[in-house]
Amino acid sequence: MADIPLDPRAIRLDCVAKDRDDAIRQCGETLVAVGAAAEPYIAAMLERERTLSTYVGEGVAIPHGTVKAKEVVHRDAVCVLRFPGGVDWDGEQVSLCVGIAAKGDGHVRLLAELAEILMDPDAAEALRETADEAEVLRLLLEGTE
Amino acid sequence: MAGIESAAVKKIVIACDAGMGSSVMLASTLRKQLKGNGIEVVHSPVDQIPGDADVVVTHAGLAARARKSTPEGAVLIPFQVFIGDPAVTKLVNTIKNGGVVGG
Fold first, then answer.
1. 8 A C-beta contact, residue B82 and residue A56
2. Which of A64, A82, A103, A107 is catalytic?
3. In B, which residues are within 8 Å of A65 by CB distance?
4. H helix count then E strand count, chain A
């Protein structure tokens, strides 16, 4: 699996955010830090969130940029940031963010796996609760079977 | 919007703002649920809905924009939540069991 779009350096399981925008900014900074996108992508993520929430259910949000911001994406990548203390997300409680930078389809398989996990409340809880980075990788790349 | 016979549905488009996040997730879910029904499920930006779409599924917050680029004769189905929305469940059941989509 040489082309995994989830860099181990982009998994941070002990984050603290003061609010939604702070959490999104941290996701963006992580994606920029691993070389997936340029700095302006962070502002695009905030802009996208104001248009429409990226909350997807089960305490998980998937912040990402706008169509236009694909110009500043270097490669398809995701990051996983866990906020054990929770983040108020327009009234929803978010404890896990899967941030996305994409201009192609490199991240699709991982998102499909995430969708599977979120449809299974037990698996979703396992993903939200684990403080083990290897377990996060395993859940997202291999699924729950 | 008159609705469309489930048997006539060949292509479902999930329309999203960037076609990068939530629509990708929903498309993969629908593709799996409708496997074997001979229906193509794709995702696209909300302003670039393919002309051969039969059913367009989009978040309620994007419905107004999606309506502008939804092809004539296609059915637009707005939903509220990405995982387990009743409107999406209804669509899947109608296609599996027969009936009129969006009727």
1. yes
2. A64
3. 18, 20
4. 5, 5
Residue A77 lies in a domain: yes
Tell me which of B16, B23, B24 to substitute to probe the interface with A (most A C-beta atoms closer than 10 Å): B24
Q: Residue A133 burial (CB < 10 Å; 0-12/13-18/19+)?
A: middle
ipTM of the complex: 0.72
**pLDDT tens-digit readout, A41-91:** 999 999 999 988 899 889 999 999 988 899 999 999 999 999 999 999 999
Residue A132 lies in a domain: yes
Q: Largest alpha-carbon pair distance within chain B?
A: 32
Q: Structural domain tally of chain B? A: 1
**What pLDDT score does A41 carry?**
97
List helix spans (H) across B8-85. 22-33, 63-69
Locate the chain A residue with the closest alpha carbon to B26. A115
pLDDT-derived band at A143, boundaries 50, 70, 90 = low
Predicted confidence band of residue A4 (pLDDT cuts 50, 70, 90)? low
- Both tokens of B86, joined, read 């009743």
- CB-CB under 8 Å, B81 with A65: no
Here the CATH number for the domain that contains residue A63 is: 3.40.930.10
Give B-chain residues touching A115 at CB under 8 angstroms: 25-26, 28-29, 83
A34 near A10, Cβ under 8 Å?
Answer: yes
Using an 8 Å CB-CB cutoff, list chain B residues near A69.
Answer: 18
A:B CB pairs within 8 Å? 67
